[in-house]
Amino acid sequence: MLAIAFGAGLAVWTLGAFAVTCRALAGLRRRQRMLLGLVARQDPAVREALVVEHPAVAAYCVPGRRAAIVVSTGTLGLLRAGELAAVLAHERAHVAERHDLALLPFTVLERAFPWSRAARVMRRRVAALVEMRADDRAARLHGRAGLASALRRFRACDRLPAPAGTLGGADGDIDARLDRLATPATASLPLRVLLLSIAVTVVSTPLSLFLLPM
Questions:
Q1: In sequence order, what DSSP letters do the residues of 74-107 get, joined into one string?
Q2: Average predicted confidence (pLDDT) for the chain
Q3: Kindly report the CA angle at 159 between 155 and 163, in degrees rounded to 5?
Q4: How far apart are CA 69 and CA 49, in angstroms?
Q5: Bridging pattern class, strands 46-52 and 68-72
Q6: What is the pLDDT of residues 70-97, one digit of tens each?
Q7: Distance CA 155, CA 171 (A)
């Protein structure tokens, strides 16, 4: 009975953190869209993005059903055409694949258990993987050299952090991303099958235990 009560309390606590996190993120993104409506402008050179007047480098996306990609004038002045195209493709990957939803469970865990170092590390690691996934899609369209060149320029200049609730292409461990772009690792077919099997097992086992008759 104590174990059941503890499990129920833990579930309620986590669901509460989920609700609070979703509400907070929705509010942050709503305010960000409102601010962009006031200060951002369209630019014929980058029709798919909103441009904000600021000398520092910024490139990020506001995810959601009304997603927006944002770049600063500092970014437009810094990057060459091919580099800018790769950065925009990186942000489009975040929007198209809804990477914000991939991060959401780990953001919830960090809010639910703020004292847990494991929760913080997991969220940071998943955030890094999300950036690398977006890098892969951008590199597939525009080549690794252009994206790597853009990241090196980002690393060497004054960058604005992406606003809370958004995903920023100039954020994260740029050195690790550059190393990965320089030496891409390709997993063999057996390794991919093994990783997929592990992922399916991890996801299905708790559900199977829950569905077993008591």
A1: HHHHHS-HHHHHHHHHHHHHHHHTTHHHHHHHHH
A2: 84
A3: 130
A4: 5
A5: parallel
A6: 999 999 999 999 999 999 999 999 999 9
A7: 9
